[in-house]
Amino acid sequence: NGIPVRPIESTIHSSTRNISQFLDKIIRPIFDEKCASTTIIDGTSLIKELLKYIKKGLLKPTTLFCTFDIRNLYTMLPQDEALDILVEFLQFYGYTKVKGINLETIRELAAIVLKENVFVYGKKIYKQVLGGAMGSSFTLTLANIFMWKWQKELVRRQDMTGEFYGRYIDDIFMTWNKSEKSLKDLLDDANKWHPNIKLEYSIGKSLPFLDVSFTNNNGILTISVYHKPAAESYVVPFRSDHPRHVFVNVIQTSLSRAVRYSSTFENFNNERRYIQLTLLYNG
């Protein structure tokens, strides 16, 4: 009917699940260690990195923020190329074996996880020939390693000028101290680096990223909690049959986030009122 869909395969109880979990267990720690400087873990880690950026004197009244996301990263991974980049990544960091397993065997195991995904729909059997199963644990690590290769040029350019570059899976946050046109030219060029990697970007002095809103207020960084417009104000209803500590945790977590993500007392009070109204709305 002309409605675009995204294939999301559940790999629970599948024949590739154990291999996927094993590869993820031995390779993800390597990625996490080697790529920590360009990896955003959560909103708090990004705030800490931007505070370092400010201490270097790089945040100016004209500094721009840029966020962009990669469209359908998991399902657009070219399979053979992703496997080649996996081996390249391990070799780049000096690995010939991982946990006693040589790289050729690791590639073969990864190929099974990536390529042997079949499902039944409408009495027909389908095989995934592009990307990986979103329900497979190793798909995330493989996507991260693929992006390690793709983003190299962006990271190099940002490092040369002292600007910040950080990535949370398929979402990227950057700072920029040149003209907006030069940034758009760079991103438009990056859109041509790989036929499967397409990005959609936003540029400005005030942008949200994950659950944080960042504003460059004339050279002063202002932060607050960000709520997506489509997000519903729902939490566990107070009258539901849950252990009492669940409700306490909801309040503590919300208030803790408000404290961490509020650069002014006014922003904290705004978020506190939002939390209060949400709790009242949910009984």
UniProtKB/TrEMBL annotation:
Tell me where the signal peptide lies.
none
Superkingdom, taxonomy of origin: Eukaryota
Show where the Reverse transcriptase domain sits.
Answer: 1-222
Q: Which stretches are transmembrane? A: none
Q: Which InterPro entries match?
A: HTH_animal, Lp2179-like_sf, RT_dom
Name the Pfam families for this protein.
HTH_animal
Q: Which PANTHER family match?
A: REVERSE TRANSCRIPTASE, REVERSE TRANSCRIPTASE DOMAIN-CONTAINING PROTEIN
UniProt-recorded name of the protein:
Reverse transcriptase domain-containing protein
* Origin species: Rotaria sordida
